[in-house]
Amino acid sequence: MLEIIDVSRRYGEYLALRDVNLRVHAGEFFTLLGPSGCGKTTLLRSIAGFDHPDSGDILLDGKSLLHLPPEKRPVHTVFQSYALFPHMTVADNIAFPLRMAKLDKTEIARRVEEVLEDVRLPDKARHYPQALSGGQRQRIAIARALVNRPRLLLLDEPLSALDAKLREQMQIELINLQKDIGITFVYVTHDQGEALALSHRIAVMNQGEISQIDEPAQLYNCPGNRFVADFIGQCNILDGTVIESHSDRVDVELDGLGRISLSAHIPANLHSGERCALTLRPEKIRLAKQLEANDAELHFRGQVHDTLYMGDVTIYIVELGEGVKVEALLANSAPGRARLFDPGDTVEIAWHADAGHLVR
Ligand SMILES: Nc1ncnc2c1ncn2[C@@H]1O[C@H](COP(=O)(O)OP(=O)(O)OP(=O)(O)O)[C@@H](O)[C@H]1O
């Protein structure tokens, strides 16, 4: 439905977008995720028409948007700051774009009522924005964006002004709202947790380029490169060298840990001598005083270096030798103690041979 084709944007010397290509499907909740300055807002503004690419094209249903000014594009943007008019009631705020479009009064009233139902605030029509909570204001801003029935809703960090509890509640509401109304969402955030929770697919951006586009679980479990592994969630990144690459497995010498053999999650065309890294999520690691041997697993012995008590879980940083440390995470399901092991304790750790994901 939305196609970004070879889009580049330069600000002076700085290349903010570099040959960006992506496709968003109709009805999809699609997220642009990346650290500050990676270009996600520039891309969103280019879709909205507030910025113009130097090269490339942006198509909606096969037609280029580039020659259209923002107000002529069938697209609406919701910003982090709600941008509601404080002197107007909620109903007047929502009606504003319809009045601009000179719709008749009964049609305006009908649509305002309908969209207030969509965002589940039908009784707030006569209130002023300052009488609403942050979450309610953002829902009204979304209602105002939806009232014109855009083909595409662009959302630029719309929840970042809300506190953590309210944010989670609004995330659930956004998922349900998008499902109910079926409009395509393109969402911008630097918060990886939010992206994983909300999106059908995520484009991870790094320095103006798309690093990987995938579904949340795929991005988390099978990162395509070190940047994605590191940016999404906690991750152990164990450097190594390819010893031998076969059609069905690869042998890798992990720095300070020795040789391992992997038969899944292997990048294509690895060659002997090439540097690589095993990416391994902390919750995939088993940790105990003693672990029974299991042929499917890789076993190591180490010493607890630090512990971090997080309430629900405790993170154990275990030194496996020669300065190689891994982070393992254990749920604190038993009541009472904050940690099972203390710094200095000798422990055994193990992970399934295919639990990690090899990247270049
Ligand atoms: N109008 C502009 N003039 C010059 N440089 C700009 C302009 N707009 C953005 N940039 C630069 O382009 C890069 C990408 O900016 P952009 O706002 O797209 O990043 P972002 O990923 O949205 O970051 P953030 O999350 O901080 O908003 C940044 O380095 C920024 O400084």
Automatic annotation (TrEMBL):
GO terms for molecular function: ATP binding. Coiled coil: none annotated. InterPro entries: AAA+_ATPase, ABC_SmlMolc_Importer, ABC_transporter-like_ATP-bd, ABC_transporter-like_CS, Mo/tungstate-bd_C_term_dom, P-loop_NTPase, PotA-like, Transp-assoc_OB_typ2. Gene3D superfamilies: 2.40.50.100, P-loop containing nucleotide triphosphate hydrolases (3.40.50.300). SMART domains: AAA. Keywords: ATP-binding, Cell membrane, Membrane, Nucleotide-binding, Translocase, Transport. It catalyses: ATP + H2O + polyamine-[polyamine-binding protein]Side 1 = ADP + phosphate + polyamineSide 2 + [polyamine-binding protein]Side 1. It holds the Pfam family TOBE_2. Its EC number is 7.6.2.11. Residues 2-232 form the ABC transporter domain. The complex is composed of two ATP-binding proteins (PotA), two transmembrane proteins (PotB and PotC) and a solute-binding protein (PotD). Belongs to the ABC transporter superfamily. Spermidine/putrescine importer (TC 3.A.1.11.1) family. Part of the ABC transporter complex PotABCD involved in spermidine/putrescine import. Responsible for energy coupling to the transport system. This is Spermidine/putrescine import ATP-binding protein PotA. The gene is potA.
